Amino acid sequence: MMRLKSKNLLSIEELTPEEILLILDTAKSIKEGSFFIEKKEPYPLKGKIIINLFYEPSTRTRTSFEIAGKRLGGEIINFDFSTSSISKGETLKDTMLNLQAMNPDIMVIRHPVSGVVNFIAEKVSASVINAGDGAHEHPTQALLDLFTIREIFGNIKGIKIAIIGDISHSRVARSNIWGLKKMGASVKIAGPPTLIPPQIEKLGVEVFYNVDAAIEDVDVIMCLRLQRERQSQNLIPSLREFSRFFGINQERLKKTKDKVVIMHPGPINRGVEINSEVAEGKNSIILKQVSNGVVVRMAIFYLLALRRQNVTY
User: Fold this and answer.
1) Domain with CATH 3.40.50.1370 in the chain
2) Which residue of 23, 142, 195, 229 has the fewest CB atoms within a 10 Å radius of its CB?
């Protein structure tokens, strides 16, 4: 059986197309209910310790990791940094080394600073999963998005997708661009010039500053919220103007394919990047993304646990 090359999952950029397919196929088998019957391993994480370390607020990601771990029989510990020794001045390095001394098997980490998960992965022997680091990457979100797109269309290769909104500050956008391109999709991005990273065309995407032009022939529209907590200055005149020119609403949706699919990684800012009618409409698969997040993260837990069986420290 093919296995993941690394004991960690830090980025989509580091994964091969074959590894992405392995994760998606494993998640598909789990969702269909056949995987653990075939493997005869209903609780592959029994006796394993998973620590969730979230230094930023999270609803979907943290909860789905917790549910995924528990469904596989793992013991989940949710680390609350606000009541930890960090508030007393303990360094991140010392926190990680102290947690590692307790011998956890997997650490799921979200942090506001890009690259911190890579630093932590170098310091600990536990498997590290990046649950979002700054504006860098959010690999498990991209994997669940890829899984959902393949579930809807049967394939990812040849699918046309437009990612709309705050591209500059979005770790979801970066991970999805890497993943979609690796799997053969065509990617457009659109947003205000102030929210488009310089030279992003080098990643193989088409850049648009007119949303209507970007979405007219795509199969998937992925809306992104404004990452205002990561913006050091006002990069748009107003939320109202952003919504007018870049928000996805019913009128704008009429200019697209009838069966265009609407995605959003959450949290949604209703009336800004998307309105309620579209978010809850027949084209929306936003809640399907949330549901699929659990099986994809189950697959990642399983594959990392399998990988660790052959790792010697």
Assistant:
1) 17-138+292-308, 139-290
2) 229
May I ask the CATH architecture of the domain 17-138+292-308?
A: 3-Layer(aba) Sandwich (3.40)
Residue that is written with structure tokens 């992003």 in the block: 200
Return d(Cα 177, Cα 58) in angstroms, integer.
22
Which residues lie below 8 Å from residue 303, measured CB to CB, with a gap of 6+?
3, 4, 22, 23, 26
For the chain, helix, strand, coil in percent to 5 are 45, 15, 40
At 312, is the pLDDT very low, low, confident or very high (cuts 50, 70, 90)?
very low
Q: Which residues pair with 127 in a beta bridge?
A: 106
How far apart are alpha carbons 188 and 205 in whole angstroms?
5
Q: Label the pairing between strands 206-208 and 220-223.
A: unpaired
At 143 the pLDDT is 98
Q: Which CATH number fits domain 139-290: 2.60.40.1240, 3.40.50.300, 3.40.50.1370, 3.20.20.30?
A: 3.40.50.1370
Q: Mind listing the pLDDT tens digit for each residue in 142-158?
A: 999 999 999 999 999 99
User: Please, what is the Cα angle at 134 between 123 and 51, to 5 degrees?
Assistant: 45
